[in-house]
Amino acid sequence: MAAAITVRDLHKSYGELEAVRGISFEIEQGEVFALLGPNGAGKTTTVEILEGFRDRTSGEIDVLGHDPRTRDRDLRARIGVVLQSTGIDPYLTVAESIEMYRGYYPNPRPVDEVIEVVGLEQKRDTRVLKLSGGQQRRLDVAMALAGDPELLFLDEPTTGFDPGARRNAWTMIRNLQTLGKTILLTTHYMDEAQALAHRVAIIARGEIVAEGAPGTLGGRDVAATVVRFLVPVGAEPPPERLVDGLEVRDGAVTLRTTAPTTALHRLTGWAIDHGVQLDGLSVTRPSLEDVYLELTGASESNDGEDEPVAAGRGRGRRRR
Amino acid sequence: MSDLALGFRQVRWTNRAFWRNPASAFFTFAFPLMFLVIFTAIFGGTTNTAFGEISTSDYYIPAIGTFSIITATYTNLAISITFLRDAGILKRIRGTPLPAWAYMFGRIVHAILVSLLLVAIVIVFGVVFYGVRVPTDRLLPFIVTIIVGAACFSALGLAVTSIVPNADAAPAVVNATILPLLFLSGVFIPLQPGNPWYVLLAKFFPVYHFAHAMLAAYFGAQIREAAWQWRDLLVIAIWGLFGALVAVRRFRWEASR
Fold first, then answer.
1. By CA distance, what is A127's nearest residue in B?
2. Which residues of chain B have pLDDT under 70?
3. CB-based contact (8 Å) between B249 and chain A?
């Protein structure tokens, strides 16, 4: 199947500032793809270039067989856009706003169907100005769906939501996915990317520093497990030769290991033999957040002088 | 749906949103009437104008008509469009297949319709309270003048948004550009006979010609003017085309950052 979006070596400069520095990725049809990164990483610039709102400095782009730069009407009829910050006429009702947008598209979806997908049935005839922030955001999505697009851009769809509203939005986005839509999502929430996306690209300072399925991103699946505990005051810490990779510092013990079963067996055996409690014992795998902070944080502090160690693990990384 | 149908559909949506804000709609219509009452009260009886003595209430029907049309087109469009631009509403529209011209068509045609309604209200008010006459025998030139003027000032209203940095600045920029011309063109205080420097200056701008064409179409032979003021209409049309050109080339759909 042809890719819905292909981006090759995309660059965008604003004067001296290089906002996007050579990004490449591909999104398959029916896929939910997340661009994850901190504010100012270049997510919105990238997405708005794909939507045709901005021009690029260089690079090749194909969106549903079109170059978005031409602002082709046929392309606009096949995409739905939820911008990061956007407005809706405050004096129209929910149903009217959707109805107005339906008229712009050749094959629109029925109003009530769209309202149902975003769960605004109760607010059907409420004016936009009376909606809460979360409800307005859902109406944003509804209006983007009015034309029954094949491809949907969601730029930070849940920023500013309370946890309940975010869960509702996630359910809604999963519904869209079951409709067979291709979705490009940007977010700075790790859990959101993990919950929704088939694939995630982490973007920092205008570059993709890692790309892959949420479970394997940045080598999470093969990364070391971390075991941590505290030795009670007065007790003797375990000898470092007990297990490879054991570090003892001021009674805090940290162990990084790729063979956690054996290591834990030895540690707990040692503890029982010596009658020592392992206070606050924890066994953790790196979360997506750990990977994210390592990748985005590392590139921040190194300021590009060194290759960030973790970044080398990511697929699809491009340097200028 | 054909593109033209899209355009007319956009007129309907613009209209619906317009009436949903009753305070804004009410004052759009009440403001000119207020001015009509105030000026007629202040100047009373008859007024000395460049065309001789005219009944004050009569003079202010086309003059306030001119003012109300400019308010409904230039002022309202410029302020409303910069608000929509800052609120991200325009950018969102820009992301749909709706052609840009169809959106503008909706806004301009709606502003012209509001203009016609405004002038009708001003005349009805004048008939009821001041016993003015309706220029029934010059209705065609009167209506054509209104439409040409409303279209011109709509185009200029869209054009001026390109130099308005944000919605907060819009009323200041709009008033600074239009109020002096309204005064210099005799819309608020009738011009006297002769051609002082400020009238020569005003003649470069469309407000003077629009006000003059409105007066001529309304009074006709009574002020020894032809109802059709072709030269005025031409100047207005040129300014309108200039405005449209600037709007097409310089219009911004997004708030500047």
1. B20
2. 1, 257
3. no
Residue A96 to residue B16, Cβ atoms within 8 A: yes
Rounded Cα gap, residues B53 and B223, in angstroms: 9
| Any A CB within 8 A of B6 CB | yes
pLDDT at B237: 97
Is the minimum CB–CB distance between B255 and chain A shorter than 8 Å? no
In this prediction, residue A308 carries a pLDDT of 34
Whole-model pTM: value is: 0.84
pLDDT band at A1 (very low <50, low <70, confident <90, very high): low
Euclidean distance between CA atoms B133 and B127, whole angstroms: 6
Beta bridge partners of residue B27, listed in sequence order: none
pLDDT at A258 over 50: yes
Burial of A242 (0-12, 13-18, 19+ CB in 10 A): middle
How many Cβ atoms sit within 10 Å of the Cβ of residue A277?
Answer: 12
Instruction: State the residue for tokens 């305070």.
Output: B23
Which residues, at least 6 apart from A6, have a Cβ–Cβ distance to it below 8 Å?
A26, A27, A60, A61, A62
How near does any CA of chain B get to the CA of A81, in Å?
7
Residue A87 contacts B where some CB pair is shorter than 8 Å: yes
* Residues A261-266, mean pLDDT to the nearest whole number: 88
What SS3 string covers chain B?
A: CCHHHHHHHHHHHHHHHHHCCHHHHHHHHHHHHHHHHHHHHHHCCEEEECCEEEEHHHHHHHHHHHHHHHHHHHHHHHHHHHHHHHCCHHHHHHCCCCCHHHHHHHHHHHHHHHHHHHHHHHHHHHHHHHCCCCCHHHHHHHHHHHHHHHHHHHHHHHHHCCCCCCHHHHHHHHHHHHHHHHHHCCCCCCCCCCCCHHHHHHCCCHHHHHHHHHHHHHHHHHHCCCCCCHHHHHHHHHHHHHHHHHHHHHCCCCCCC
Chain-chain contact of A89 with B89 (C-beta, under 8 angstroms): yes
